[in-house]
């Protein structure tokens, strides 16, 4: 039985942010309601001093933690009035929906909230909308609404996209003007799509998460709708072996409130069940997660849990908090009655990070002044985790550096210090802050491994190949030595696990650029764009996050067989905006409008009686259309093809053939031109000696004009 874990399973960024805020908040702290819809996580946080409360009436002083679902504005006002310190862990997507509800209510719009009316997030949104909003959970409920002139729609962040689309479709006939704001969390959409995609490929689907989590319930419902048997469990102990009898492939996903460790336990239990069922195969990591697996430097496979296969770096011996003894517990050190000595001993306790000044750089060690009677010593092995040839490449005399105390005194009475471990601890603190606040980092690519890149951000982090760029990356080695812009998307300090993404930043910037472009696009504008893709019917031009279609007929005034004859992918060109359809997301463009129209001077350049060379473009029952220059073509009527009666134009000319034609009439306004092959062959051309040449076919058929026109080339023939 093979086990496949869906992409994006588990904590979303908003939930992870809330849990992190709870973990680092000074304790005790009261959480206004369960922090997330997962009883196991809530129980774990309660053991750490995060106490859930039903209302502010239970909290008289101290700190109050606002969960990711957010709260009504009056709750925040009440907390401030009581003097409570507010730790706001409201999900950024929920915050955006709250701000929209408040703004739309102030504009007097009737607000429709698509979501579960009993959900904490939705109840809060109703209050942010000044209590004026109506909550709709399905399209069927729209039938009870009256006609309205102006409505605005916002949606619970964890609702399925299909529910929003169905409600909007039902509202359109009942609303004269409808504004729709899609506030569904992008991570929710990706998680649901990945789960549905996996459910269609497996025999059994397991959805892990709290039963009180609307997000997880929706996830299970979407999986069931694929027709695949789906089981919703909160923890591994609920799995039953009879569910998987005869199953070859089992898929696993988790709701936004499900931590990775619970998903890991489910995967391990499925492995155990697979062995007990005695399937011929052993469970393995699904292809959706396989790219995250790394190998040891010597090529030996790591023993990793399938659901969390990111391995960043080995534990370097940094002291954990529970291993750091207090000053009085230091072996061989007694507290002195002299304040200065006591302070020095406290500063030099094992595991503390202090600031010192480099006083000497030797070949085998670095001496640092950290106060006291003697300098501290940094062995070369504790100077930096980056390779170096000499310690002078890392530090210089007089430089202030952070160091960690490994031992207050070595055999020679000097404090034993580590710069690399201090740097590592400081880096983790900075990374945790960046994770919580969504800050951008920069890191140098220091290695290429299976499935991604290793980057240096103070500690070693992993960037999966799929999160490097917005598109597919073919050569990972091209990034070695380059600096990437990164965001932390997964962090576990205890396991030294750090997963980063450059694509998250690029996606965010692309979306901002796309939105700005849509807002500014208007018909008639002239814009620069990049040719992104060529097709038979035209070219797609990137205008800055928005692709517009330049139809083949709008590329040039002349006939263009294929866009690749004129344009190249990656080329920058100027185009004119011909039309904008924001509802359908379409933009039509033109290029020939920015080029001189050859018809504007056609009368002057082709006076009546002129004989010119032209190329037969196409044939019709009534004649042949001939191009005299790109963008200008005229009609040789069937009566003007030869002196004798012609039944069909193909009896005289063929497509692609170059022939002489005489200009009979030019209608510059209507962009029409009448031409004659018969008269061009009879009359000697004026002012264009080359035009007297006999027409010849370009297709190499070998047909000669003498064979076609006989004695028409005689000098005495007349019209």
Automatic annotation (TrEMBL):
Enzyme superclass (EC): oxidoreductase
All residue ranges annotated as the S1 motif domain in the record: 351-420, 438-503, 524-592, 609-678
GO (cellular component) term, any one: cytosolic small ribosomal subunit
Necessary cofactors: [4Fe-4S] cluster
One GO term of the biological process aspect: terpenoid biosynthetic process
Residue numbers binding dimethylallyl diphosphate: 37, 69, 119, 213, 215, 257
Enzymatic reactions: dimethylallyl diphosphate + 2 oxidized [2Fe-2S]-[ferredoxin] + H2O = (2E)-4-hydroxy-3-methylbut-2-enyl diphosphate + 2 reduced [2Fe-2S]-[ferredoxin] + 2 H(+); isopentenyl diphosphate + 2 oxidized [2Fe-2S]-[ferredoxin] + H2O = (2E)-4-hydroxy-3-methylbut-2-enyl diphosphate + 2 reduced [2Fe-2S]-[ferredoxin] + 2 H(+)
GO MF, any single term: structural constituent of ribosome
Metabolic or biological pathway, per its Swiss-Prot or TrEMBL entry: Isoprenoid biosynthesis; isopentenyl diphosphate biosynthesis via DXP pathway; isopentenyl diphosphate from 1-deoxy-D-xylulose 5-phosphate: step 6/6; Isoprenoid biosynthesis; dimethylallyl diphosphate biosynthesis; dimethylallyl diphosphate from (2E)-4-hydroxy-3-methylbutenyl diphosphate: step 1/1
Cofactor note as given: Binds 1 [4Fe-4S] cluster per subunit.
Keyword Metal-binding set for record: yes
Residues where [4Fe-4S] cluster binds: 12, 91, 185
Keywords: 4Fe-4S, Iron, Iron-sulfur, Isoprene biosynthesis, Metal-binding, Oxidoreductase, Ribonucleoprotein, Ribosomal protein
Family affiliation: Belongs to the IspH family. Belongs to the bacterial ribosomal protein bS1 family.
Cited NCBIfam families: ispH_lytB, PRK00087.1, PRK01045.1-1, PRK06676.1
Function according to Swiss-Prot or TrEMBL: Catalyzes the conversion of 1-hydroxy-2-methyl-2-(E)-butenyl 4-diphosphate (HMBPP) into a mixture of isopentenyl diphosphate (IPP) and dimethylallyl diphosphate (DMAPP). Acts in the terminal step of the DOXP/MEP pathway for isoprenoid precursor biosynthesis.
Protein name: 4-hydroxy-3-methylbut-2-enyl diphosphate reductase
Gene: ispH
